[in-house]
Design goal:
Number of helices: 14
Distance between the termini: 97 Å
Strand content: under 5%
Structural class: mainly alpha
Order of helices and strands: HHHHHHHHHHHHHH
Length: 294
């Protein structure tokens, strides 16, 4: 019985050594392929290495998951890239490159929450990285998109580069201020956008509506005040207000005409028709009224 147990023990030890030898060789082969730039082969070997460890109930070193995840990302194997890179994060073996790959992979599968988590981790750790501004920029975009406005305002103050000369960043800054009813900053952002690109639709649309509704609100207020009192003083105040109302409507008209020339829509035609009616320009009002049905 003792002899049999000894034989079994030797067999088990031999098998264990063989298994360890196999894993070590597989690891060396995978690392060599990676270092020599044979990336497709390296990914295949890392896959085998990870599977072999799983089969034996053993843990794989974190760098293996990080390398394998980056290679899977390189070869557009998105789900595998996410699986491996998340495991690398769990083992604290991630780096700037892998967090970028993870964020972009989540963006590819349209998982905004996990993209934001990856971007946040990157932005908080790698301020000296060469791609920092690009990722910071994307982080700001996702915060605006996810309605995380307080954090977006905080991040805006810390942005590197020159966001005021970046059209995409200024568009998102406009959207942020629009969403939080900060009309003054939204207008400033829109005007800045037009300095960058005089045909920016978002900026033109904001300014067109701003001046139109500003004029209509002022006109209605003055008319209601006049109708209520009907005094000479109130009428004089109405007449004094008209040049301001007229200028706002003219400004709105110019923006809406620019928008309509690029994006002819029934909505923009309706605004223009209303403006020309207030200017008593029947032919232009009729022209845009007809365009509302095109």
């Amino acid at each position: 019985m003792k002899k049999f147990s000894f034989v079994v023990l030797i067999t088990l030890l031999s098998g264990g050594c063989a298994s360890l030898f196999y894993l070590a060789n597989l690891s060396d082969d995978a690392d060599s392929a990676y270092q020599e730039g044979r990336y497709e082969e390296a990914l295949e070997l890392y896959d085998q290495l990870i599977d072999a460890h799983d089969d034996r109930g053993k843990e794989v070193e974190g760098y293996v998951y990080n390398r394998a995840g980056l290679l899977a990302y390189k070869f557009e194997q998105t789900n595998k890239a996410i699986e491996y890179l998340e495991e690398a994060r769990r083992k604290s073996s991630d780096n700037a490159e892998s967090l970028i790959a993870l964020a972009k992979s989540y963006r590819k599968i349209d998982n905004l929450t996990l993209e934001i988590r990856s971007l946040k981790a990157y932005v908080n750790q790698y301020s000296g990285d060469s791609l920092y501004y690009d990722m910071q920029k994307r982080y700001f975009e996702t915060l605006v998109e996810s309605h995380n406005y307080e954090r977006a305002y905080e991040l805006w103050q810390d942005l590197q580069g020159d966001p005021y000369n970046d059209e995409v960043m200024m568009e998102n800054y406009l959207l942020l201020n629009k969403a939080t009813d900060n009309d003054k900053k939204a207008t400033e952002a829109a005007e800045n956008l037009l300095r960058i690109n005089k045909k920016n639709k978002l900026a033109l649309d904001w300014l067109a509506r701003k001046y139109y509704y500003q004029a209509i609100e002022r006109y209605n207020y003055e008319m209601q005040a006049y109708e209520k009192n009907r005094t000479h003083r109130q009428y004089a105040q109405l007449r004094e207000a008209w040049p301001v109302i007229h200028d706002d409507l003219r400004t709105a008209k110019n923006y809406f005409k620019e928008l309509y020339s690029m994006y002819p829509s029934s909505e923009y035609a309706r605004f223009l028709s209303n403006i020309f009616e207030r200017f008593n320009n029947d032919s232009k009002a009729r022209y845009y009224r007809q365009r509302m049905n095109d």
